[in-house]
Structure formats: C-alpha cells, structure tokens
Amino acid sequence: MSAVNPNHPWTPDSLAHELQRLREHPLGLHTAQWVAEDGGRVVGMAAALQFAGMYHPDRYHAELMVLPEAGRRGVGTRLAGVVEAHLRARGAREVLAGAYEDQPHALAFLARRGFSEAMRFFDNVLDVDSFDPAPWAAHEALPDGLRALSLAELEAEVGQDSARRAYHAAFVEARLDVPRTGAASEVTFGDFQTRLSHPLADPHGILLAVTAQGEVAALSELERAEDDSGRLNTGLTGTRRAWRRRGLALALKLRAIRLARQRGIREIWTGNATTNVPMLAINDRLGFRPRQAFVEMKWGGV
C-alpha cells in the first residue's frame, strides 16, 4: 500500500490500529481484505470496507492497489473480480472507490465497471521554510474571551475527560459541514476516544480555541506522519457555527504553522474537497499548493 501510494504510507502498527478500530466498532462495520501473491511476494491488495464517518449498511468502500512492476498482468482485474463477487453476495447498493487524476488507466478501470465521478479531493502542501509569518502576525490573535490551548494543555487544566468531551462536542459539530459524498454519521465519544489512541495522534498538536466557560469554539488538528519526521498532516480544521466568520480557523492554522516551525518541520499536508471553497481559500492565502486530485467515484447509490 505504501509503495503504490507513497504520499499516504502506512506502518504495520497504524494499519493494525485502524483495522482493529473498524472491527470493534459498535456499528458492526464490515472489513474484508485480500492480497495477490507472486512467488510468496505480495504484489497487490484489495479491500471492501465500511467506515463509521459516513455509514450506511449497504454502502461500502473498495480499495485496490497493484505494484507498478506487477501491472498489466491481470492482477487488478482478478482482485476486482473477487471484490465484486464479495459485495454482490452482501447485497451492496453503493460502492465508493477512486484514483488520482494522473492515473487515467485506473479511472478508466473503474468507469468500465460502472463507476462515475462523485467528488474530488486535493492534497494541499505547505513548504514551511518558505512561509513568512510576518504579514500574518495580527491574524494569529483570537477574539476577546477566547484562548488558544493545545488539547494537552486543556487536559492539564480541567482533566482528560472534561477536555476531551469539550473537544468532541466541537469536532462533531464542525465536521457536519465538511463536504463528502454521503451524509455524515455520528461519531460517538467512545469512537472519538479510540481515534485519539491512534499511534500518530498528538495532543500537543491539536490546537483549540477555548471560551472562558471551557467550550471549544474551533479546532485545528496536526498529526505525526508515517516514517517522516519532517512532515505533519492536518486532520480536521473547523469552527462551531456560532463562532464562524471571526477568523478562528485562520488563527489556529497560523499557530499550527508556528508550532511546525518550532519543531523543524519541512512540510504540512492537508486534504480538501474541491467544493470546500472557504477552507481552500484560507489554505491558498497561506501558501498551501495542491497536488494531484484524488477522484472519488461511485457505483449505485443509497
């Protein structure tokens, strides 16, 4: 998986954590995976998964990856046949899959199987060394009545449970307006706790705008990257509806960039749907530059 998509690599620990999280989820999420072997070497993988964030019992996400040197030999076609038979037996009514826009052969592979484009997502990347903080100094200040704290700092002040519940409440509300190809489903506090136990989660990199009453009004999440100490990934950046249009997201992103500079980070990566105009505008102003878009494609519908 890491060789096929080096921009988003996995380690065994992070992959095991993610699969365990899916398999133990109270929704009873489905997970099925296959590998293609050639002489004892894995040359391809496929998966049929359900995710909690956009759950429907008849919606599945399909993944298929083949090493470039094993391409054009029918490996992908055979794996696709296995996945299709599996999903047909389960009565799937919607399947989401995708490929990058510079992989026309992969997009055509999906189109031949009845998939059509549903949405596009960019990886946006900031070269931290080239970022000049001077013109942005005034924008880092929060409105009166708000403080900027990391999750670790808030936990030290009010205790882990109270801090995480305040963070969870803001996360749940902010993510409802993030563009996606289906309705957002509930993120329970238990699932949120599991998310925070991920090997790459960093409570010092989760930046929050906190009211005097302890409510989290906005958040911007930084996560460590797999096997790359010079890179940080952005999780969710968002603001609760009552606090929007007051510069909170921009202020927290600026603090995140400052934190990255202090840590000697080379790049910050974030992902944005092409329809998320407000966040794309903020990232463009800050100097994030888009990479090739990931084209999410859909078969059927629920």
From TrEMBL:
The record's section on Pfam families has:
Acetyltransf_1
| Keywords per UniProt | Acyltransferase, Transferase
What SUPFAM superfamilies does its record include?
Answer: Acyl-CoA N-acyltransferases (Nat)
- Does this entry carry the keyword DNA-binding? no
For this protein, the record's InterPro entries field holds: Acyl_CoA_acyltransferase, Bact_Acetyltransf, GNAT_dom
The record's Gene3D superfamilies line, in alphabetical order, gives: 3.40.630.30
**Keyword Transport appears in the UniProt entry:** no
Going by the entry's taxonomy, the superkingdom of the source organism is recorded as: Bacteria
One MF term in the entry's GO annotations: acyltransferase activity, transferring groups other than amino-acyl groups
Query: Which segments constitute the N-acetyltransferase domain?
Result: 1-135, 169-302
PANTHER family recorded: AMINOALKYLPHOSPHONATE N-ACETYLTRANSFERASE-RELATED-RELATED, GCN5-RELATED N-ACETYLTRANSFERASE
* Name of this chain's protein: GNAT family N-acetyltransferase
